[in-house]
Amino acid sequence: MWHILMKAFSRSLIFICVVLLTHTACTRAEDEKLHYFSIGYSTPEGNKIWIRKAEFDRRYTRPGGNLACCWEEEGASSGIFNESLPKHVYIEWIDLGDQLLYTADVDLVADVQKRAKEMTEVRDTESGFHEKGNIIIIVGMGEHGEVIVWLSNYPYSGGTITGRVLDVVGKAQATARPWKPPAAQ
């Protein structure tokens, strides 16, 4: 009889451990998700590009389209809900002036999620308004294929806003190949 009770107890204990471990793993994954953040794109003033594809963690994409400015600022952007910040960015764009197709894979720093949670507030020195600041991933594509990914708390600099953070969380050099526009129909 004792042996049967111990066997049942062991099975129950194993079941409880599995349930607890599963719950803990799911809770940790949920903790990493943010209610909202945005992803934007940036290029130096006058650098005319067309973003063909932007893929994050090989799970979701965000449109980019045509872009011709502004370095270190959130240009074309879109919001992301209930996701964790990406750890990897794949980006394809066409430099319309040089007729080159660029592709790049960018790994982001391991602690990007922690950095985002520690974002400081921004202030408007004119109105006195202040807020925690947004969480923004800005993917910058330079004139010669350089890619810089920033984590920021405000979409642009200048004006009367102070406290903006622009933290480099990833860098890569894209590869380029010639690109020809499709023939006009």
Question: Strands, helices and their partners?
Answer:
Blueprint: H1 2-32, E1 34-42, E2 49-56, E3 60-61, E4 65-67, E5 77-83, E6 88-95, E7 100-107, H2 112-117, E8 122-124, E9 130-131, E10 136-141, E11 146-152, E12 161-162, E13 166-173, E14 175-178
Parallel strand pairs: 1-10
Antiparallel strand pairs: 1-5, 2-3, 2-4, 2-6, 6-7, 7-14, 8-9, 8-12, 10-11, 11-13
Considering DSSP H and I runs of 4 or more, what fraction of the residues is helical?
10-25%
pLDDT averaged residue by residue:
85
Q: How many strands in all?
A: 14
Number of domains: 2
Describe this structure in words.
The protein has 185 residues and is of the alpha+beta class. It has 2 domains: 1-31; 33-178. It is 20% helix and 42% strand. It is built from 2 helices and 14 strands; from the N terminus they run H-E-E-E-E-E-E-E-H-E-E-E-E-E-E-E. Strands 2, 3, 4, 6, 7 and 14 form a 6-stranded antiparallel sheet that branches. The protein has a 5-stranded mixed sheet with strand order 5-1-10-11-13. It has a 3-stranded antiparallel sheet with strand order 9-8-12, with no helix packed on it. Strand 10 and strand 11 form a beta hairpin. The longest helix is centred in the first third of the chain and has 31 residues, at 2-32. The chain is globular, with a radius of gyration of 23 Å. The N and C termini lie far apart (86 Å). The model is unreliable at 17-31 (pLDDT under 50).
